[in-house]
Amino acid sequence: MKQEILQLQQEMKKNGVDFYLIPTSDYHHSEYISNYFKCREYLSGFTGSAGTLLVTLSDAYLWTDGRYFLQAEQELAGSGITLMRDGMADVPTISDFLKTHIQAGQTLGFDGRLYTTSFIIALQRKLSAKKVQIKYNLDLPHKIWTDCPPLSSEPVYHFPESYAGTPVSEKLDGYRNYLKKYRADCQLLNGLMDIAWLFNLRGHDVACTPVFLAYAYISTKEAILFVQDGVLTNEAKEHLLTNHVTVQSYETFYEFVKNIQKKRILVDHSDLNYCCYQALSNTNVLLRCAKWTTMEKIVKSEIEIENTKNCHIRDGVYMTKFMYWLKHTIKERTLSELEVANYIDNLRLSDRLALDLSFETISAYGSNAAIVHYSASVESNAVVEPKGMLLVDSGGQYLDGTTDITRTFILGPITDEEKLCYTTTCRSMLHLANAKFLSGCRGSNLDCLAREPMWELGIDFRHGTGHGVGHVLSVHEGPNNFRYLVNQNNLDAVLLPGMVTTDEPGIYQTGKFGIRIENELLCKKWKRNEYGQFLEFEYLTYVPIDLDGIDVTLMNKQEKSWLNDYHKRVYDIISPHLIYEEKEWLKTYTRPI
Fold first, then answer.
1. Alpha-carbon distances, residue 339 vs 6, 322, 343 (angstroms)
2. Is pLDDT at 379 greater than 90 in this prediction?
3. pLDDT interval class at 59 (50, 70, 90)
4. CA 130/CA 137 separation, integer angstroms
């Protein structure tokens, strides 16, 4: 067993804990977390961005999803940790595993700041018959992680209305009307994206996500922002003062919560962490209700839409220039996965409005691309040769928007199987992107449009077809998405005009290759008639789809038309920003088929 696991087990014994949970999370349930919170990675050695570690006094188990099965298998080898392939038919969920293995009267420990209230309440319900003891105030990993990086405290700056679109005063008025609708006095906010959006502020405390560590309290009479001391710029302070927002120290939040008395409080169980939920006094009336910001921020304003279209044009130019460079350079010499990633990263970061990447670039050659969220490292850095395929999934955070795009590039000869899978992936993307549908549909109603061309071949992929994209926030933003596996606990949002969602089907053959093609889509109105309001999608992403991988005999007339129309738009929008050689090359790669 890994030394770190053995040390944790010793701490568990000292604290009377039989089972201990370590999620991939921070106090705000962020998808990407800063280094201080990477306890699961420190203990297990698994570097994927999603997973939960369960440690008992004798064993350790790690759950992760289908994106990371191959990566986790490699990184956990020799650790003594058992890989639990989440979602597979023979693998129990964490709660089911605990229900089976924990004995009556035993103790389950975790840091309640890292878990949502909804998760812990559901877990308690599952374990109720066992009369399990819960210790939710235990941060054991940081007791043994002696050289843990400090909590991030980067500057927090004002995000002007020219980019944000809606003034803070208008947002706070909307929130207070929401509270009054439910006859509530206040609501607490944990989610960093909600807080950054509500107050028109941005920061750098979370990797690839321009947000900052904070909590917020919104009532019918006041707004309080809890941030770390000294992080607000002078402009941000003035901005908050103008909007009558009080600032308090991040470290005082839980004491503040304990002192809330006799209030009617809206509580979003999917947002509020469990320690905060427990801190609320018994004198308060808790009304379970979603945050107002949940739906408000995912429907982009006209200014946000205009900005995101502008940033996608520039991002499309960088990706097209990158494709031109890749196609020409690979004919002259071999490359490496990291060299490829660095090239596109540098192009994006040269933009005058660039803030950061929107996630770590995935540059995966050959069989590495079968690992859905592969991350090239110095150790794994594959040589990229003039044959086969290279998958590049990348994006940028700009002051005017957030981008996410995947292209799979053909670098030389490919097999008939690879061409079949590439063409099928392209067809799948086109089928969803060109959907026309009635208002009221959810992404889960449309997901099968993308999967149908693959299902016809008996092929599927183990990830959602698409996710919402925040505006200068997280590149992964719910609850709008495309997936077919849903239930009442993870129901996706009804699609509305102004929502941005990715369309990214893929085919992955372990040990052989991986293919994914991804565009961002903007939902908008189409036509209205006696059946109601119909909606459609508009492409935001304009970058060539590599025609070297397309077998036109596998596409019908409509699919060819869709691809030709898309490529015409790519050329019309991107070519004015290219030099002559690049423009001439682009003509070839956007030619009608």
1. 38, 12, 6
2. no
3. very high
4. 21
